[in-house]
Write a structure and sequence with these properties.
Number of helices of chain A: 9
Number of strands of chain A: 7
Largest sheet of chain A: 7 strands, mixed
Oligomer: homopentamer
Strand order of the largest sheet of chain A: 2-1-3-7-6-5-4
Shape of chain A: rod-shaped
Strand content of chain A: 5-15%
Order of helices and strands of chain A: HEEEHHEEEEHHHHHH
Helix content of chain A: 40-55%
Distance between the termini of chain A: 39 Å
Chain lengths: 366, 366, 366, 366, 366
Amino acid sequence: FYRNSPLWYDKTMKLIRKDMKTKIGRPPGTLITEEAGGPWVQECRLYEYDPSSCEDYEIELFSDLSRLKQQGSVSWLNVTGLTDGRILEWIGREFDIHPLVLEDIQNTGQRPKIDDYGDYLFITCRMLSWNEPRRSIESEQVSFLLGTNFLISFQERPGDVFDIIRNRIAEGKGRIRSHGADYLMYALMDAVVDHYYLIVEELQSIYEELEERILRERPQNGVQLMHTLRTEVVTLRRAVWPLRDIMNQIRKGENSLITQTTEVFFRDVSDHIAQVVEADELLREMLSGVLDYYQSAVSNDMNAVMKVLTIIATIFIPLTFIAGVYGMNFHWMPELLWKWGYPAVLGLMAAVAVYLIIFFRKKKWL
Amino acid sequence: FYRNSPLWYDKTMKLIRKDMKTKIGRPPGTLITEEAGGPWVQECRLYEYDPSSCEDYEIELFSDLSRLKQQGSVSWLNVTGLTDGRILEWIGREFDIHPLVLEDIQNTGQRPKIDDYGDYLFITCRMLSWNEPRRSIESEQVSFLLGTNFLISFQERPGDVFDIIRNRIAEGKGRIRSHGADYLMYALMDAVVDHYYLIVEELQSIYEELEERILRERPQNGVQLMHTLRTEVVTLRRAVWPLRDIMNQIRKGENSLITQTTEVFFRDVSDHIAQVVEADELLREMLSGVLDYYQSAVSNDMNAVMKVLTIIATIFIPLTFIAGVYGMNFHWMPELLWKWGYPAVLGLMAAVAVYLIIFFRKKKWL
Amino acid sequence: FYRNSPLWYDKTMKLIRKDMKTKIGRPPGTLITEEAGGPWVQECRLYEYDPSSCEDYEIELFSDLSRLKQQGSVSWLNVTGLTDGRILEWIGREFDIHPLVLEDIQNTGQRPKIDDYGDYLFITCRMLSWNEPRRSIESEQVSFLLGTNFLISFQERPGDVFDIIRNRIAEGKGRIRSHGADYLMYALMDAVVDHYYLIVEELQSIYEELEERILRERPQNGVQLMHTLRTEVVTLRRAVWPLRDIMNQIRKGENSLITQTTEVFFRDVSDHIAQVVEADELLREMLSGVLDYYQSAVSNDMNAVMKVLTIIATIFIPLTFIAGVYGMNFHWMPELLWKWGYPAVLGLMAAVAVYLIIFFRKKKWL
Amino acid sequence: FYRNSPLWYDKTMKLIRKDMKTKIGRPPGTLITEEAGGPWVQECRLYEYDPSSCEDYEIELFSDLSRLKQQGSVSWLNVTGLTDGRILEWIGREFDIHPLVLEDIQNTGQRPKIDDYGDYLFITCRMLSWNEPRRSIESEQVSFLLGTNFLISFQERPGDVFDIIRNRIAEGKGRIRSHGADYLMYALMDAVVDHYYLIVEELQSIYEELEERILRERPQNGVQLMHTLRTEVVTLRRAVWPLRDIMNQIRKGENSLITQTTEVFFRDVSDHIAQVVEADELLREMLSGVLDYYQSAVSNDMNAVMKVLTIIATIFIPLTFIAGVYGMNFHWMPELLWKWGYPAVLGLMAAVAVYLIIFFRKKKWL
Amino acid sequence: FYRNSPLWYDKTMKLIRKDMKTKIGRPPGTLITEEAGGPWVQECRLYEYDPSSCEDYEIELFSDLSRLKQQGSVSWLNVTGLTDGRILEWIGREFDIHPLVLEDIQNTGQRPKIDDYGDYLFITCRMLSWNEPRRSIESEQVSFLLGTNFLISFQERPGDVFDIIRNRIAEGKGRIRSHGADYLMYALMDAVVDHYYLIVEELQSIYEELEERILRERPQNGVQLMHTLRTEVVTLRRAVWPLRDIMNQIRKGENSLITQTTEVFFRDVSDHIAQVVEADELLREMLSGVLDYYQSAVSNDMNAVMKVLTIIATIFIPLTFIAGVYGMNFHWMPELLWKWGYPAVLGLMAAVAVYLIIFFRKKKWL
């Protein structure tokens, strides 16, 4: 678990650091267009559906994007990869998006937040997934632009938690095709939050494993293991906590883009977030409880060892002293000449030892 | 106490985990219908009463449920066991309940909450009971659907804290038969909260027992015992705290389903909850106080032992040195030939020992 | 101080426990009427006064209570002992008091609270007194029912802090006879809060005594003493904190039973409560400061002892080794035959000892 | 620093205790008039000024006080010494002051607060000064009664921080003579708050001195020194924190006695208070940081000593054992007869010692 | 890192101390004019721009400042060095600035704050930069006076973070030239806040370095290093936290000087501040986590050493005792005469040693 995981600040801090240096000095709202050959290929996929039909295209020309503005059906544009700023620029021009919003979409490392621009709603949050080989959380920024009948979602890398939504759209299962773009956004955010449950579960199973090991073996690197786990708990917290404010703002119901029907569903997401927050808090509290326990147990173990060893030493020191006395070379030491001197001294030694053992037993030190 | 109790995360976390994995991927509002042979048989019992009469039936056919909508009397439908989704579906259809509510009823592991849907009020909370053999809290989800003249309650397992209410209805004791469904809900929630007192009491008696043992014996596994108790305290807290928000919302008086007369009674429940919360907080504070005390006492004990042992060693080490000196084999050691050499050295040793003991006494080390 | 005091949860928790078990199962608002021979005799005393006159009666028949409703003068009914529910029932019937209020009056162990029922105001709080022989706080519930021109006060046991008020009424000192029942309630609550000052004072003098002992002697049971004191501090806090909310509600001035003139006086009580809260917080903070100090001092003492002892041992061990070398029985050990061998070795030993002492001194270990 | 300072609860608690016992039992609003010969002589000084002129008198007869009510000029009555209640009574009668206000003025030990009585404003706060010989804070209550064109200030002892204001009035420097009584009150409170800066500065220099000593020498009584300093920090906090509420209330601008022009100046005082609060918090945080540091350093030092000593002992113990073996008196011990036995054993001993030293070095224990 | 850095209170406290003593006694709003030859030369630079043109002058005569009031273009006056009060006085007279504002500009050491005076807006905040040689934060006060079409900025020393803004103005890049003075203020504050990111980054890299060293080597001065870092974290916090209130007040949108267009940009600054605050909190939490880890690791290391050493001692003590026994000089000790006595005893010793080692291994002590 710990061997494969990087130093623990890594996950929690890199997010913040990424856009720091590059940002300074550029005028606000500037987009970066990296040269081709960047790590992630850009991919745009458009889903158009109404209660009766559903289509999806791979968008390759900007002109294809004009479909997004078609009335009558709901359009979902899913943009993967953010290194090329041109598509963002085009969307910004076409839908009159504020440049700072576009910048926030591209600068992954944003704190989850909601911004209401009247015509459209901008939400950014963190999509977490579990990296099993490294046993740590992977975090990725997902942004949503919600308009009257379209939703544009942005993600950093291919691979996401939205496949179940895509299936539901394709197969027309549930309510999704008969509702508007706001319901789609709910569905996507619900999928994101549902995956937080999975993270909680993984963290809990790591916690349980850790607790058991600590209760049983008291591993040397116990504190380090707890640290690594704590980092993950913090990562989760950083993703979930700001979502509560977002949900509060949605539930206040001041925005006309989210219909009252969908608001009820967001209430459900709110509850899930509250549950994840509670579970996260609980994990944190239990971790600190186990840390206390571990330190107390380690120190108890240590004390027990030291006590026994010190007692052994304490028993032998007087005996050695007695032996030392009769090892002295005085000419006139009458005991040395007695026939029973030796056994008597051995007896004395045994008596002293037994007395001390009884004494320690009585004092409950042994 | 501790031997029978499971690892301590068990109770507090399993609740959350249960509905995690199963939920992901399903469209919101989907109900599960397990095959027959699930662990709990479904049982529906209907109580109908007005000030003058009272009847109760075992409901076996869906059509029997149409009685619920009868005017003029109060109906209480008590559903036990939630594994079969069909009855939930029927209720949902008949009373026009939001699918997310039905899902929340079935997915036990909800955070206590209140949702006001205008026509009906949805409340879910946790019913705690004390499992004496395992000496731990058992937690179960109870949900209420309150309409104008009916109340539907859902619980996971047979066996609950409502028998006293059933008696009161049957015997017509107190006000219950002359009030509406809202008063019935008050009575049921009051019963739930009253049982929290019992839990507090059990935890307190465990705490007292623990405190006494720790003050008297300082058991090796003291920290572990405190941990186990702390888990129970946390479990109670997780059930009680969210109830305060529920009560606040009820007391705000914005809902027409709860009459002003009944609101006064809910104020009483609020007070009880405040008392349980306070007792829980107190337990927590006292536990952390006792933990401090325990650790300080253990370390004091240890220090006392080490000090005495070290002092014994320190007294004998110089004596052994003196013996060692006169155990040397130099040819020219005049003291060895003196007649009173041996007694003199013994005297010297005694003098050193006495001096050291007096010195340690003076320094208050002994 | 500590010898006479019971286990420390006693005072703080018994309050809560008392009414737990007995309450469960009874319909809300049920009063208990214990058989005669209960521990406290019931006593009802009625004071009637107006600016010019003042009378007080011992009430023995229910019919006497009808005086309470007389217009023109202020009536104060002081009920002592709550085990017999009949008088409560009579008052409830006569003044149309809500049954839950009556129940709260009888179930001592309430959290201090205020409930405004329009016609009358219900306040319950805790009257603390100092039990000198046990050196601990005694806590008792006092409840007030304030009507337009009457005040009914309930207390658990004879003996209270109201004698000074009784004198002021009897002698017509101060403003009390020229004001209404609300001023009387202010005067009584002021007397209750003034006694909190006494408690604070006692706790402070115990604290000072404790601090001095700890600074001077570091008693073995220091942590235990602090614990006991902390319990008292918590008891005080539990009584005072909820009073702040009560005062806030009174000062909001929404109730017509409390005139504006009297409100100014309640502002004064508020200030006193704020002062007691602050003193309580201060005591708590200082206690935790002294605990830190104690633990640090104990561990410093221990370290000092161990260091000196270890240094003594460390000095003698090399000397003993040298003696051991010349105690070996090799035939060919030229030093043994030298005339100055013995003194030389003694000198070597002295040199080693002196060197080590200087070394330890230099390192500031000694 | 610590030798001259009293036990540390002294300063923070005596304030509260002073008026406790004396208050209980007296009707609210009673003033005390001590016999002459009390510790502080009463002194009343009246300053009357308008933009063009300025006079100050020593008031000796009550009739002189009637000047206070003169229109057209600002009057500042500065009362020093509160033991004689007659002047308070006279002021109360003349200006129709609420008796509780008079009581609060006399009972020094109030929590800083503001009370708005419409006609006049009552503010009480704490004037701190630095007692250099005892190196501790001296605290004194200052109260202000602000009317339309007069200000009455009360202080406990002669000597205050107002001399600069007196000079400014006398010399007509700054704005003070051209503004009303509210500006005067601002000027006085500003002087009080400015002196808090001095206290902060003194505490900081003590802190720096302490930190340096702790970093350098780790004095035995380090924890005690930190305690004493912490008390002073708490004393400051108790004086400053409630002032924030006072300032908030003034800034809300609901009182007609404080003109809008002066309100801007109070905003400045608010900022100063915020700065002092922040500095106080910082001191507190740094103190707890240094405490951590100190404890960690002391324990590191201790560990280092113990490690070296234990290692010395551990090296000599095997050597002593070898010497012990060849000190045995068996007849048949061939090594004893070897010519090179003795040097060989000495060599063995040296080898063991060197090996152990290398081993400990490698393990980084030495 | 630590060698070059001053005592850690330096940076955080000096700010506060600077203006304490000098302020006391002066009437509010007094400016200081130091004699020439003060440490920083005063420099005033005026930038005037409109969408089409841009000029900048070095202001040397007060009369030149009259340009500031010219309509039609935006003027930015950048004042460097605050020791000479004359220019402040001139600005105050010309623009009718409140004297307390001027005082706050000159008394560097203000808490960041915003004051709205209707005609102009006063904001003061802290500009942080990283001093690489000392590896610590440098803090400097920057104040802004925003009027309808001018902005005056004040800084203590030459050298700032505004060069990129100057370039953008000069080259007409981005939106800056086409917006008003409020946008300029946004740009400057954004530059200030963007530099906080750099500070965060530096602190993080120090943290990482520190964490790695602590995980690997456990340096003796680990706690001290953490302290020094914590001071920097506190310094950052003190600069950033009050900014949140400032941003909140700007975003409330009550001021007419900041247009709605610019408000959106301030929202962006708000987000950055939230991110810096979060990073700062994270650093703090991680530091305290690492401190726990460090202390636990150091104590574990220590325990491991002590255990091994104690075990070595414990094994040899019984062996030395056996040797001591056969070193006794009794005449009648039959074992001494046995031919195999010596080897037998050596064997016994080996057996005891092996037994003890096996015993310790079994107990997992070794």
